[in-house]
Predict the structure.
Amino acid sequence: MSHVVIIGGGFGGLYAARTLKSTDVQVTLIDRRNFHLFQPLLYQVATGWLSPADIASPLRAVLKRQRNVQVLLAEALDIDVTNRRVILKDGSVSYDTLIVATGARHHYFGHTQWEQFAPGLKTIEDATEIRRRILSAFEAAEREADPEHVRSWLTFVIVGGGPTGVELAGTLGELAQDTLRQDFRHINPAESRILLVEGADRILPTYAAELSAKATAALARLGVSVHTGATVTDVQPDAVIIRRNDQSEHIPTRTVLWAAGVQASPLGRILATATGVELDRAGRVMVAPDLSIPNHPYIFVIGDLAHYRNQQGQPLPGVAPVAMQQGQYVAELIQQRLRGQTPPPFHYQDRGSMAIVGRAEAVADVRGRRFSGFLAWLAWLFIHLMNLVEFENRLLVVIQWAWNYFTRNRSARLITGEPPSSTVVNVKQ
Amino acid sequence: MSHVVIIGGGFGGLYAARTLKSTDVQVTLIDRRNFHLFQPLLYQVATGWLSPADIASPLRAVLKRQRNVQVLLAEALDIDVTNRRVILKDGSVSYDTLIVATGARHHYFGHTQWEQFAPGLKTIEDATEIRRRILSAFEAAEREADPEHVRSWLTFVIVGGGPTGVELAGTLGELAQDTLRQDFRHINPAESRILLVEGADRILPTYAAELSAKATAALARLGVSVHTGATVTDVQPDAVIIRRNDQSEHIPTRTVLWAAGVQASPLGRILATATGVELDRAGRVMVAPDLSIPNHPYIFVIGDLAHYRNQQGQPLPGVAPVAMQQGQYVAELIQQRLRGQTPPPFHYQDRGSMAIVGRAEAVADVRGRRFSGFLAWLAWLFIHLMNLVEFENRLLVVIQWAWNYFTRNRSARLITGEPPSSTVVNVKQ
């Protein structure tokens, strides 16, 4: 029986595996992690709203009844195109058809030394680390005597005004203004300074301009100040330097969060070396109209690792719906090939884009119709929950959401891992 | 105003703080962590049933409306009895009355080198580490070709047949027999070998003998074999050696969990040095009838760090109800002293003891009446949930419990942290 190997259990890989359910092929899904991560809600783990397990489904549980799929917990290091084998960290696995869906990581435009001071948000561990830093900053401020240091602990800088940056800034604003309101005795969390730094002339630059304006206003109500046309020129342990209108500004802060720039998974470069396929500047693979690699009809690249242009010549954004549709498309293509058919090129059905700004505030652009406010937030919630409930156990997230919404509670604000570093020597009483 | 300092936000410290609510004192609660941990359910995190946030309440959230309490996220290193100051890792805080409630850690009877191979279960990090090891063992077995190695990955040894060991073994049995039943393609998790090793002649030695027998039978139904009268003589990376009836047995296993023996917090020894108070063999402080340190009426020790004998001369067990009642007692004593009264000695009201064995199976001893089976399980559930709902947001745990009960689901079975080590070189297909 033909063997389809899928590397990556994100939206693309998982949807490919599920769509191959009643197909006469053997499927092996390889992932380094034992769970599928619902990345669009990762910022909610980072701000203590949801628990890691609320947005992660064990891959084996999701696929347990699909008897033609085996899950392999392993790391793919290389692809031997000639012998059709995926080289793992410990072993190898041969394929007839290969689907590479290993996604992207954030990157620092050549400044990898910034990562230690400005973590990005791609994994569960990233999210709990960011949660630790945010909560520890409030704790350090509570214990700090010097007002200038208090100010620096209560200053949060988010770099990148795309959906992730906007969502992080908005929920951080809510945390400071609302959730933590009564928690401290020496500081007022509502006096936190939250800056959202964006290089373009408006946040959410891929959205309509009116939605950017709405989002900016909604963020302002949550105490977030937006700095557009500003680029980060340095990140230090206790400050960030931003440049704007040819002026440099030194902003003392202990918490910088990185939501700018993505870099495709290293398997992109490996595929380029092995097949000669072109990569774009972010390391994404320039795929053929059927998402295969030119001259390698049995290797497909989907999701954030693929560079694919729509009919208007625009590259598709790195969002879950693109990956899901590409996974389904490739699975259907494999089925059609088994029947001797040649399918039409991939076509992305854009059902709109949305970003959440706060507790009951979002912006949405659905086929040219623009919403904002509570209605957009409800739409966002509905669409995300519909996606979530596809997997087992997701009804609980809905309950948790509703509960948190009505109680304004964030029960998951745990500081785990390393304790905060602090140089405080006197305790206020 | 008089300043009461409480070290430790466990059951003892937290109940003391809450009972001081409408008292005319200032309270400072010091803890290294920013949350109260509901330790009796920790084993459920270790087996992927609940998320860490489900059993942890942020201390600031629990105490936010109690304006006479401040929470201090700090580590207490020493106590300067002469000047009435608690020395922190970074600073110090002075007290008029001190309540030390820093609990206990597991210990290895002098074999600290065993800890790396046999983690204990006291913290959230312990629980996620144990969860990682258990789930990774099944993953490694799935990929292993050598049947002997498969067998060793599927062998789990739990050392210590008290309530924690019994609960761990029972839920691990359920995980193997039930939850993971359909998850793998090359192994059958139900063939796992789960051993519970206890030095005494029966498990749950502090319970009535008939309950020990009931628990043993219930564990057997979950595939757990109980080895009593057996002591561990060595723990190695890939085996455990147990001694029983003067015979040594070498058991190949990759997963050993430690649920035997506790050692009091190091603050016990510090108090002994500073005040001359006696310690018992486990390092617990031998407190006066009012839980103070003899000749130091303003220093109290409560919970797992205290050694207190009931009227029958039996030391009280290290369980949550004892700590809660001691916290309340000391808080009330402080109130009475403010009114010039001298309270009677502490008296523990034993409301019974319970251990859960499986999904719908428990043993309970309530004032001499012994239950087992589903009824005991319901009683256990009710009592724990009543305790949980005292804190914010705990209704969700009830919902999650009910959900998991009816769906037999464990959504929190995430492997986070380090990936499993593996020496496998061939992938089965």
About this structure: The CA atoms of residues 263 and 379 of chain A lie 30 Å apart. Residues 112-260 of chain A form a domain with the FAD/NAD(P)-binding domain fold (CATH 3.50.50.100). Chain A has a mean pLDDT of 89.
